[in-house]
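Hey L., structure's done. Input below.
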Amino acid sequence: MKTHLLVHETVQTSAMDCGPAALKSLFESFGIHISYGRLREACQTDVDGTSIDTLEQVANQLGLEAEQIMLPPDHVLFSPAHALPAIAVVRLPNALTHFILVWNHLGTFVQVMDPAVGRRLLTARSFLNSLYLHTFPVTAASWREWAGTDEFIQPLESRLEQLGIATTSRARCIEQALSKSEWYPLAALDAAIRMVNGIVSSGGLKRGNCTESVVETFWKQALEQGYANSGISTPYWFVRPAPPDDQGQEQLYLHGALLLRVRYKTTELKSAGQTDAADTAKSLSPELAATLAERPTTPGLELFKLLAADGIFTPLGVSISLILSAGVVVIEALLFWLLINSRLTTGLVAQNSNLYALTFAVVTLVLIIDWQSTSYLLRLGHKIETRLRWAFMYKIPRLGDRYFRSRLSSDMAERSHSIYRIHYFSEVAGKILFSIFEALFTTVGMLWVSPGHVLPILLAGFFAVSLPLFAFPLLAEQDLRVRVHVGALSRFYLDALLGLVTLRAHRAERAVRREQETVLREWQRAATGNLNVLVAFQAVQITLVLSCLAWLLVSVLSENVATTSILLLTYWGLRLPVVGREIMRYFQHYLSHRNLMLRLLEPLGAPESGDPVAAMGTTPKHAQSSSLPQGTAISMENVHVKAAGHTVLSGISLEIEPASQVAIIGPSGAGKSSLVALLLGWHQPAEGMVSVDGTPLDAAKLEQLRKETVWVDPAVQLWNKSLAENLRYGSKVEQTERLAWAIEQAELLSVIEQLPDGLNSSLGESGALVSGGEGQRVRLARGMLRSGVRLVILDEPFRGLAREQRRTLLAKARQLWQGATLICITHDVRETCDLDRVYVMEGGQIVEQGCPSALLEQPTSRFKAMLDAEQTVQQELWSGSFWRRWYMQQGHLQEMEHTIANE
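Output:
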C-alpha cells in the first residue's frame, strides 16, 4: 500500500466540515483522489458528516477498510496497538468535539492533520491531553472475548516488556489472566500495568525486576479486594463495572479514546494510483459516486488555457519578445564590458563612438520591447479577468441548491471578489519567463567569458533557477492554507453585518469576537509560516549561489585573467542571486494566483442542477404536447428524502389531480415544506419517483415546471429595488392596468400610500423597509402577475396578516388560479375545509389524506382532532376575558374592548 510520509492537508471553511475534510485528507494521503466539494455536498444530503459512524461507512464504501475502536489513551500512540493512521475525536477548548486525522508517530511528535488549522506536529503529551475520552457500555462477555485476542494481548505484553519484566514472568502473568473466564482478571492486570508504567514514566520507579513485584502486588490486591478497594486509580482502568442491562446481563463501562482506524485499501489502485471510479460507483449513491468520478483540477493548466484562449500567436509573440528582452539585457552588460576593454586597450575615439552608438541602440531596443510586452501582458490580464467574470455570471445561476447549502455564502462572495487578482497573472507569468531566461543567458555569458570554470557557473545557474521548483509543493500548500483562512474570516464580516441588531440586542459581540480571534490567530500563524518558508528558501538560494560565485572568483583570481573579465564575471555573478530571488518572489505570486484559480475552479467545475440549461429559452420536449391540461398532475411513489444523512421524508405516496386545490397541514417540522421542495428542485429523492404530468421530474421537466409555477413563501427574495421592480420580477408585465389590478387584488394600496415614493420606493435589502405581512402581499402580487401558471405553491403565504385578511386573500388566490393545481401549506386548519383534498403530515410521513368533509366524519381522524384543537384554543384561550388587547395601526397603539377582537 502506497502512503505518503507527510499527510495531505485539507483545511475546512466552516466548523461543520471537519468530517469531510478529514476524509479528504485521509484518502489523498493513501493516494486515492476524491472530490472535497462533492463530498461536502454528499454530507448535506445522503450522509451526516458530523457522525463518526457515517465517516466509517463512507470510508469503507469509497475504498478503505475502516473500523471504530476504543483504546486506552496511552495505547493510541503505542506501536503494538496498530492504531494509526486514524481519525480521532478531540475536545476543543470550548468543550466541543472535533475530528482530526492522526497520521503517524515520529519520535516524541505526532503528525496530525487538523481540518481547522492544517498539518501540525504536536508533542505526544499535548496530543493525548486533547483526546476526547468516551464512555460506552458493553456486555462483560463481549469485552472478555475481545480482550482475549492478540489485539489486546500484544500491547499488554509489550507494556510488560517496556517495564523490563522477563519473558517467563510476562508469559506467566498473561497466562494466569487468560485462564479465568471472567473479565476482571484481565482488566485488573491491564490497569496494574498502566499504573506502574505511569509511575516509571514520572521517575518514581526504575525499569527492571522491582517493577515486576510492584505489578504483581497491585494485580493481586485488585483480585483480592475487588474494584472498589483495588488501590489502582480510576483513570488507569480501561473498563469499569456498570449496572446490568435490561436482560440482566453483566455490563461494563468502556472508557477510552474513540478512533476510526484505517487498516488498508480494499481495492487495487488502477491507472497510476487512481481508483477506477466506474467499478466502485456501482454500489454507491450518486452523491458519493461523484466524489470518485470527478477528476482533480489543474489550475495552472487552466490559467495557461485562458492565456491562449484568443490563439497561441499572441502569447507566443509576447514570450519571444520577453526572451529577446532577457537576452538583450545580458548583451547590454557585454557592450559595457567591450567599452571598458576598448578604452583601456586602444583608446580610439572612433571605435568607442561606434560602441556608444551600438549601446544606445540596444538600450532603446530594450525599452521598446519592454513597452510592447508589458502592454500585451496587461491586455491579456484584462481578457482573463473578463472571461472569468463572465464564467461566474453564467455558472452561478445554474448551480443547484444543494451546492449553496454546503458552502458558506461569505466564502463564495470572497471567491468571486478575488477574481480581480487574476488580472495580474499574465504579468507575473511574463516576469517569471523573463527572469528565468535572464538567468540562463547570464550563465551562458559567464561560460563564454570563463570557459574553464564550468562546474561553479552551472551550479550557480542551477540553484538560481531550479530551487523555486523544489519549493513549489510546500509554498503552494502554505499559500492555499492562508487563502482558506481568509475565506473563513469573511464569514464573520458577513455575519456581523447581517446580524448586527441581533448581536447587540443579545450582547453577543464578545462571543463573536472570540470566535473570530480563533480563526484570525490561525490565519496569522499560516501567513507567518508562509513568509518563513519563503524567506528560508530565499536564504538557502542566495547562500548557495553566492558560495558558487565565491568558488568561481577564487579560482579565477588564482589565474592570469584580465581585470575587465573579472569585473564582468563579478557583475554577472552578483546578478544571479538577484535574479534568483526575483524568480522565487514571482513564483510565489504565481502560486498565489494558482491557488486562487483552484478556489475559483471549484464552483466553475461543479455540476449544474441537472443537465446544463443550454436549452434555456427553448421549449423542452415535454412542453411540445398540446394535450397537457391547464393544471399540473403530480404523482409521488414511495419517495424518501435525506438531508445531512437524516431522513426528512419517508414513504411519501400521493396523487394530485390536475386543477385540484389541496392542503398540506401538520405540526412544525413535519416535512410539509420539504415535500413541496421536491417540486421546486431543492430536494431530490433518495428513493422513489416524482412524476409531473405522467413524466419523471428530470432536469428538463423541472425547468419547464418552474416557468409554469407560482411560489409564494416568506423565503422568496425581495430585492433592494423599487416596489414596481419587485412586482414585475419574474414576469414580463409592462401594462400599468395589469400592475394596478395585481396591487388591488393583493391589497397593497394601503402599503403604497405609506411609502414615501409610492411604487418607486425601495423596499430595502430583503424587504427590510416593509413589514412581514406587507412583504407577503408583495410576493403574492408578484405571483399574480405571472402568466401561463399551471402550479401554485402557497407555503404559509399570509404569515403576519390578520385572520380575516388571510381568509380574504386565500379566497382571491383560489378564484384567480382555479384552473391551476394549487397546493397550500398552512397552520390554519379551518381554512382548509373548503379545499378538494387535505394531506396530514407528521414525522416526515403522510399519516392521513382525503376529502376534508369525509375526514371530519371520522371520529379518529387526525384532521378532525387538529381542527377541534384549533377551535378549542381559539375559544378557551385567545377569546378569554383575561387578556388585555392592544391594536397597532399606522404607528398608533390603542387598547381594544374585549368584544371587538376575536383573535
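The chain has four domains: 1-131+266-296, 138-252, 299-603, 629-868. Residues 629-868 form a domain with the Rossmann fold fold (CATH 3.40.50.300).

-- N.
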